Amino acid sequence: MKTRSQRERKVVPHYSSGIVKGTELFQGRGIPLGSSKRIKEGIDNLSLDSLVLLHRLMYHKQGEDSERLDDILLFSGFKDIKQREAAIRIAQRVSEDNIKPLCKLFDIENEEKDDMVKELSDFLFAPKLLKRDFKLNYIETMDESEDNEENLRKIEEMLASPEEEEAYTPEEVSEEEDSADDKKTTKKQSIHKKEQNENKVKQNKNKKEQNLTKEKKPYPTISHKKETKKKNKKKAK
C-alpha cells in the first residue's frame, strides 16, 4: 500500500507595522517639555492618536509604545530649521481637528489651520514655560498671611509681564546660520587667495633660479681667436 509523502509546510514570515525601535534624542534650544507641570499634565491626558502625532512632529516617526511618552517629555526643541520645516509638512497633511488638541496643550489660540501650524512649529522649535506655569509657581509660593485680593492682584501683574527666559525664534537662528555660512565662505576665499599668492611667489622664484642657472657662453680667449682664424683660412683655401 502506497503512503503519501508528507511535505514540510513553509512558514510565512509575519512583519511588524514598520515602526522603528529607538529614537535619537538630542538637545534643543528650549526647555524639556517634562519640566513644565502644565504641559506634563496635558500630555498625560492626550489620546493615543495625539501622542503619536506629537511624536511624529518632534522626531518624524511614530516611536515605540513603551518609549513614546518619555521621548515627548524629554523633547527640548528641534536641532535646526530643517527639522522644523519637516514638522510643518507633517502638520499640513493632517486635519485641523487633529492639530487642535496639540494647540490647546501649548496655549495656542489661533483658529486658522495655517496659523496653528506655524505657531505650533515655532513653539516646538524652542519650547518654553507657559503663562499657566508662572501662575502655578506663584500660587505655590504666595504668602498666606495676605488677603485673597492682594494675592490675585499680584498674580495678574505677574501674568501681564511674566519673567520668561529669552527664547530663540526660527528667524533668528536662520540668520545666525546664514552669517556662520558667510563667515566660512569668506574664510575659504581668503585661504584660497593666500594659496594663490604663495604659488605666484614660488613661480617667480623658480623663474629667477632658472635664469641664473642657464649656461653662459664662454668669453673668447686669444688662443681661441687664433684657432678660429686658422680654421677659416683652411676653409677659404
Descriptive report:
With 237 residues, the chain is an all-alpha fold. It has helices at residues 37-44, 48-59, 68-74, 81-93, 96-105, 113-125, 131-141, 148-160, 170-213, 222-236. Helix 2 (48-59) packs across helix 5 and helix 5 (96-105) packs across helix 6 (113-125). It is elongated and about 135 Å long. It starts with 36 loop residues before the first helix and ends with a helix. InterPro entries: DEK (IPR044198). Residues 226-237 have a biased composition (Basic residues).
Brief sketch in words of this structure:
By secondary structure, the chain is mostly helical. It contains ten helices and no strands.
> How many runs of DSSP E, i.e. beta strands?
0
Average pLDDT reading: 76
Kindly provide the radius of gyration, computed on alpha-carbon positions and rounded to a whole number of angstroms. 39 Å
Fraction in helix: 55-70%
> What's the N-to-C terminus distance?
130 Å
Low-confidence stretches: 11-20
* Shape summary: elongated
Broad structural category: mainly alpha
How big a fraction of the residues is strand? under 5%
Please outline the major beta sheet. Answer: none
The succession of helices and strands, N to C, reads HHHHHHHHHH
Number of helices: 10
Biased composition (Basic and acidic residues): 192-218
Organism: Entamoeba dispar (strain ATCC PRA-260 / SAW760)
Biased composition (Basic residues): 226-237
Region (Disordered): 159-237
